[in-house]
Design a protein that fits this description.
Blueprint (H helix, E strand, L loop, with lengths): L3 H8 L6 H13 L7 E2 L3 H8 L3 H13 L3 E5 L8 E5 L1 H42 L15
Helix pairs in contact: 1-2, 1-5, 2-4, 3-4
């Protein structure tokens, strides 16, 4: 089952690099809701399907695990040695919401700085206009002597 809302939430997390975001979005897209949001894709599969290197995927998974967005485990029995990744959908949603608010604040801050910068430029232009020297014709310079 494709979970577009979870993918959309993962996309909103701003603290991730592009590769980390791609890997998280991939895991969210293929996570199996009936099996508690688990994914059985290998790192090689994730790399190939998303145009990334295996080391990039491995590093991204390490960061996602560190942020507790994804937990990792492995199978026993006939699938022994195969990794399983579990997406923590509640944490993904929480982090997306937090990052969205932070991003909104940064955007507001940036807009205010832009307005301040434009106001400063306007003041400088007005000052330059008021300080402009009016050229005096050369003929008029000798009349006062």
């Amino acid at each position: 089952m494709v979970t577009y809302s979870l993918v959309a939430q993962a996309q909103k997390i701003t603290r991730l690099t592009a590769a980390q975001k791609v890997v998280l979005m991939h895991l969210c897209q293929v996570a199996n809701e009936e099996c508690d949001w688990k994914v059985w894709h290998s790192q090689a599969q994730i790399a190939i399907w998303n145009g990334l290197g295996e080391r990039t995927v491995r590093d991204a998974l390490a960061k996602l695990t560190e942020l507790k967005l994804v937990s990792t485990g492995s199978f026993a029995g006939e699938m022994m040695g195969r990794n399983v990744y579990q997406v923590d959908r509640k944490r993904v949603r929480l982090m997306a919401e937090t990052d969205r608010h932070e991003a909104d604040e940064k955007i507001k801050e940036s807009r205010l700085k832009g307005r301040e910068h434009k106001a400063q430029q306007r003041i400088r232009r007005q000052m330059r206009r008021s300080l402009r020297v009016v050229p005096v014709p050369v003929e008029n310079l000798g009349e006062g002597a």
